[in-house]
Amino acid sequence: MLTLVMLTLLAAPPVEVEVFVPLCDNALIECGRAPAGAPRALETNLYWGAMYGAERYLSRAPGFKVVSRGPGPEGGVVLRELVLERTPAKEERPVRLRLHAYAGDAIDTALEDFLRAAAGGSRADLLVWAGHDRLMDREPPQVEVPPGATPRPVVVLACMSEQYFGPVLKRLGSTPIALTRTLMAPEAYLLEALASTVARHGPTEPNALRAALVESYARYQRISPRSAGSVFSKLTPAKAAP
Predict the structure, then answer these.
(1) Can you tell me whether residue 128 is helix, strand or coil?
(2) How far is it, in rounded angstroms, from Cα 36 to Cα 49?
(3) Is the pTM of this model over 0.90?
(4) Is residue 121 within 8 Å of residue 149, measured between CB atoms?
């Protein structure tokens, strides 16, 4: 029986996680030193090339390997496409992360693409926004729902995303799996925690995912679990069902 379970897990396709990362832009928020907030500087940007930036951190994280790395479509605002896979441990599923690094000065395009994907324009098992909460600055864009599309479950790692993204996602029919209540840092150790939890519990378990995000945020921010717990929304399984 155990052998059958292991063979089933090995044969299972990877859980697909699509991550939208608009680079930090000092013209919108305080990103730190000039290179950290240069909106098209992949190697130094706070959200991509810094110590806890998406590519730099995840490409070095234990158990993760880079499958492919290259520029986005010519003439577009996606500066880099990065695909990583997380090697599963016993009784885990493999997880494949596909990251899109958007130019920070094209965050509105990133937002539209993310919401369109959440409405069903993507076939990923889980969608993630990791960056500035652009909806704090502007009205939500109008997004057409693709005909016959199935809205996707989403995680929004951005400041106060329950307040700003929550109503928009509800209108699109998308299911929030993890949102935030306060200001926060959308750094890549949270993506690592997300991938590890998805490998064990699947992409639609809000309680397991929240616990992992809280633990990771407390450790890396060097704050108490109680303080970290105040950052992430409490979503019930009923609300988060796909």
Answers:
(1) strand
(2) 8
(3) yes
(4) yes
